[in-house]
Q: What sequence folds into this?
């Protein structure tokens, strides 16, 4: 029996754990109770993070399409064919889509390969755009605000302001602190449309109507500082947000009573804080509070995937070099050139995921490298994704599991999964975490940094490292802010990444603010149907689906569910867990009605994971070009019981 | 019969034992784990540690365990795991000894669980009585410690430069007989001092969990739905409480197979892994009906199983030994003592007695 220290590879908390192995491989995990992140706790995913290592349903060997048929090929053969293929396209016709599950070392190599080997800035990862408003916030805030703050900081605050954080299950280690704080007598101000399991423990719970969060925050700032313009009268605000003036006052008073305030929000919630406007308004509110005497303020933006924070910081973004430096930042570009041994870097901002997909559709982008399977979640429209991918002239996938991505690919390289890969992550606190190789790799699986180095070498550009530590060393030389980071110092500040941004966004706060436009309910369609991320985003995680226990838990929720609260459900004649007919002006579909007390009356929630199945009745999603995020439709609906 | 083992002889004694030795060691960041055959100088002595993150009962009932390997090629071929080797667990705490004895009873009650029972037969427990309980320990409330009167094979009581050795079973007796050279008779007064130490240790506990009151409240169904709802709200269904609980026995069984080889032979294995009654999929029946579809009912059921009189009668004890591990793992402060004391006070916040 051997135990090895590593980090869970599922969510942005980044919990420390030990794997336990015997002759039969990795057989379990032990949470680390000395770790400041999780203090001995693991959520259901962490307890089962070893299980995918025991699952043999994997891609073992490189696969290539040769003369129209797909077959296993020799590794070096695959490399030379890929190298030859890539050389045929000019750099601006090649794109790379990375993954938020890549280690920092892998992500750094994705950024470097794209820029130094291919010469393109069309580099991005799905979900990146949801973090951009948070970067803006980082730019806007001044001294005395700690962002991201740590989990421990949450316990030191006298008031927790939690905005749109949803179910306690989504961000377990943050939830643990929130619950501990309230049990020990702390105060929670919850601003969330959901009546989640946090609600009964809140000193004050405000449930704004969907999408009215930004206006609500503006109104709060307006109460605290009369020079802030609120373009609506009090009664209008109440009717738009569904929050009374008294409640707003009470919230303002609670905020003013605080000396140490910690604000927590969900960067992936679809109803609240993902919109840039909401984040501007939160930044504004925090500024006002600092002026009104709140002595210390911490902000914790919660991120869903294990290394979204790292991928962004390593430069897997069309406008960013490693260290959150802009691609137009000459100093960093020059440094990168000399370190990477090249003459120049592409200077124009590249395309993000959404634009890359459109560019493939209209023939501007012709070759694509995809790492991992995050794209499956970010583009819930399977049909469209298939169609887009079929247009790519050279599609290279680095993936552990078969999916429609590998189905469409001309070349597939097997990817090392959690436990086989090593390197570092950056969790939501900005803490560097170490990921250890705890199991032998299956077949010819490699980490993406290794595959990319091999491809570069096959292209005649020498790129090689002896191990992932060497990659990290190079990063430290490139980005001075990271030079003193020591990932294995788990509990001191030597493992915390903190940047100050001086560029990137103009930092101007938008003054205009509008009321959300939502369809009106009627007697025929009494419900407002919205798409929201519910519970754990398991559907997003092919790794989780290869754990036997997590797969079992997921299957439970595998039919399309629509949530309503039980009072509403009974009044509509529905029964919990029973078939129902969902009707909208666009059509009707069979679903399962599930009672969930977190849903406010008048609203029905379609978990995002089922959206693709019900697109026909719910409506078409849109890509917001400006932010690069998906905007789901909101529609009116009715539900009735069926047999 | 009581004996004395001088501390300078402990290493030699441990090295003289046959079979594998499991003993507590401290890892780089401070956690305590049981390691197999660790270097003797790394083995923790009584006052160096409170308890391991995971109970050493996991050595006999691991999180995942291969039950057999199979090969399907015409006639199925089954390969059973190798016979277990003798195992000595040194440094196991009293609560975990109590848990082990419960598991032995449970796994050989109606249905004999061969993998566990075979290992248990070959396992010897050398426990060390606790004199410095941890901040999460509450074993006196659950007949789980801190000193054992029964259940151990050998129990060591730390007296500074020597251990008082108490023999609790035939297995323990045999171990000593074969190694008489390490022991000397203990002076009679030590027994009295030992009892005094046990008494003094009882004063050192920081928390209490009034299990009797909990059992009474549950059995008489005196707990309001509202209280259950409020407590369950803080459970995030991580399963941690069941996984670290040394008395929890549930498991799930899955088959894995390797990709089919070119000659059509299928190779694979069947394994079992820990399961938890707090998971939604756990109580799912084959037909797709779930008798406990919501978190509140699963949460309630968990405590009924551990605490109600009905189960006490069946299992012979409350389903808790007071090791305190659930306190460490729980996300919502709804661990055993927090729940029991909430039931007792019938109110919510600040429920833990300090
Ligand atoms: S909270 Fe996140 S990092 Fe921790 S165990 Fe759960 S999924 Fe893994
Ligand atoms: S440890 Fe706590 S949060 Fe986890 S399942 Fe048990 S009661 Fe729920």
A:
């Amino acid at each position: 029996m051997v135990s090895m220290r590593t980090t869970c590879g599922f969510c942005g908390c980044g919990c420390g754990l030990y794997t336990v192995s015997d002759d039969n491989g990795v057989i379990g995990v032990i949470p680390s109770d000395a770790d400041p992140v999780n203090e001995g706790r693991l959520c259901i995913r962490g307890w089962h993070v070893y299980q995918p290592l025991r699952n043999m349903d994997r891609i073992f060997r490189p696969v290539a399409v040769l003369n129209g048929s797909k077959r296993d090929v020799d590794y070096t053969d695959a490399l030379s064919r890929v190298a030859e293929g890539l050389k045929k396209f000019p750099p601006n016709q090649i794109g790379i889509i990375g993954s938020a599950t890549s280690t920092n070392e892998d992500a750094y190599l994705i950024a470097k390969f794209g820029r130094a080997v291919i010469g393109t800035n069309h580099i991005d990862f799905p979900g990146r755009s949801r973090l951009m408003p948070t970067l803006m916030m980082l730019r806007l805030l001044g001294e005395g605000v700690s962002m991201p703050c740590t989990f421990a900081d949450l316990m030191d605050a006298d008031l927790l302001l939690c905005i749109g954080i949803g179910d306690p299950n989504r961000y377990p280690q943050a939830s643990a602190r929130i619950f501990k704080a309230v049990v020990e007598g702390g105060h929670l101000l919850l601003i969330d449309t959901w009546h989640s399991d946090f609600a009964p423990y809140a000193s004050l719970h405000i449930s704004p109507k969907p999408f009215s969060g930004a206006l609500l925050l503006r109104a709060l700032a307006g109460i605290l500082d009369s020079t802030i313009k609120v373009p609506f009268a009090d009664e209008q605000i109440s009717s738009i947000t569904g929050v009374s003036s008294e409640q707003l006052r009470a919230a303002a008073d609670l905020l003013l009573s605080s000396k140490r305030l910690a604000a927590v929000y969900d960067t992936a919630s679809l109803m609240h804080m993902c919109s840039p406007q909401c984040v501007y308004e939160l930044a504004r509110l925090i500024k006002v509070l600092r002026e009104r005497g709140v002595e210390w303020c911490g902000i914790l933006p919660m991120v869903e995937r294990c290394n979204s924070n790292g991928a962004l910081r390593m430069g897997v973004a069309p406008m960013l070099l490693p260290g959150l430096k802009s691609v137009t930042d000459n100093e960093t570009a020059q440094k990168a050139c000399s370190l990477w041994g090249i003459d120049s870097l592409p200077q124009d901002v590249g395309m993000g995921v959404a634009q890359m997909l459109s560019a493939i559709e209209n023939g501007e982008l012709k070759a694509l490298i995809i790492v991992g399977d995050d794209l499956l979640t970010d583009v819930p429209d399977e049909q469209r994704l298939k169609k887009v991918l079929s247009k790519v002239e050279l599609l290279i996938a680095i993936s552990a599991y078969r999916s429609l991505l590998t189905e469409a690919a001309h070349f597939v390289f097997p990817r090392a999964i959690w436990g086989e890969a090593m390197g570092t992550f950056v969790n939501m606190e900005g803490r560097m975490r170490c990921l250890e190789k705890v199991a032998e790799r299956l077949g010819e699986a490699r980490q993406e940094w290794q595959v990319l180095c091999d491809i570069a070498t096959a292209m005649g550009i020498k790129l090689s490292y002896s191990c992932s530590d060497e990659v990290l060393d190079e990063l430290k030389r490139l980005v001075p802010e990271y030079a003193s980071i020591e990932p294995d110092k788990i509990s001191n500040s030597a493992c915390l990444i903190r940047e100050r941004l001086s560029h990137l966004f103009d930092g101007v706060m938008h003054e205009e603010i509008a009321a959300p436009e939502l369809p009106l309910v009627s007697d025929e369609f009494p419900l407002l149907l919205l798409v929201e991320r519910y519970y754990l985003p398991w559907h997003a995680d092919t790794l989780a689906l290869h754990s036997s226990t997590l797969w079992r838990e997921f299957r439970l929720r595998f039919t399309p569910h629509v949530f309503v609260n039980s009072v509403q459900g009974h009044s509509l004649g529905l029964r919990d867990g029973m078939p129902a007919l969902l009707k909208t002006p666009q059509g009707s579909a069979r679903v399962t009605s599930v009672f969930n007390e977190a849903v406010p009356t008048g609203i029905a929630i379609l978990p995002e994971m089922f959206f693709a199945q019900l697109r026909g009745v719910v409506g078409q999603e849109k890509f917001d070009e400006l932010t690069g995020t998906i905007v789901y439709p909101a529609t009116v609906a009715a539900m009735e019981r069926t047999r | 019969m009581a004996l004395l083992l001088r501390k300078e002889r402990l290493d030699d004694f441990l090295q003289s034992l046959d079979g594998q030795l499991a003993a507590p060691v401290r890892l780089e960041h401070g956690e305590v784990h049981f390691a197999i055959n660790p270097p003797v100088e790394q083995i923790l002595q009584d006052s160096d540690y409170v308890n391991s993150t995971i109970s050493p009962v996991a050595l006999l009932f691991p999180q995942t365990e291969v039950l057999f390997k199979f090969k399907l090629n015409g006639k199925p071929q089954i390969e059973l795991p190798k016979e277990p080797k003798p195992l000595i667990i040194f440094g196991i705490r009293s609560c975990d000894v109590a848990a082990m004895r419960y598991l032995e009873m449970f796994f050989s009650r109606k249905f004999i669980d061969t993998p566990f029972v075979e290992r248990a037969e070959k396992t010897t427990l050398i426990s060390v009585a606790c004199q410095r309980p941890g901040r999460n320990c509450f074993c006196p409330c659950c007949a789980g410690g801190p000193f054992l009167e029964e259940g151990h094979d050998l129990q060591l009581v730390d007296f500074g430069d020597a251990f008082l050795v108490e023999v609790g079973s035939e297995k323990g007796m045999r171990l000593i007989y074969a190694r008489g050279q390490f022991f000397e008779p203990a002076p009679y007064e030590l027994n009295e001092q030992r009892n005094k130490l046990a008494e003094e240790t009882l004063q050192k506990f920081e928390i209490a969990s009034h299990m009797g009151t909990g059992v009474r409240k549950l059995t008489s169904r005196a707990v309001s739905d509202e209280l259950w709802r409020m407590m369950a709200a803080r459970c995030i269904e991580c399963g941690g409480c069941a996984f670290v609980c040394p008395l929890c026995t549930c498991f799930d069984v899955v088959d894995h197979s390797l990709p089919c080889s070119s000659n059509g032979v299928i190779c694979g294995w069947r394994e079992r892994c820990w399961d938890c009654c707090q998971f939604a999929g756990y109580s799912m029946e084959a037909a797709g009906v779930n008798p406990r579809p919501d978190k509140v009912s699963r949460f309630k059921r968990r405590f009924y199983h551990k605490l109600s009189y009905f189960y006490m009668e069946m299992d012979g004890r409350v389903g808790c030994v007071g090791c305190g591990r659930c306190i460490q793992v729980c996300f919502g402060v709804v661990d055993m003592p927090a729940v029991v004391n909430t039931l007792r006070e019938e109110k919510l916040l600040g429920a833990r007695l300090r």
Q: What stands out?
A: Residues A 8, 10-11, 13-15, 38, 42-43, 45-46, 172-173 surround iron/sulfur cluster (ligand 1) (CB under 6 Å). Chain A touches chain B through 56 residues (CB under 8 Å). Chain A has a mean pLDDT of 92. Chain A has four domains: 2-53, 56-127+306-499, 130-302, 527-641.
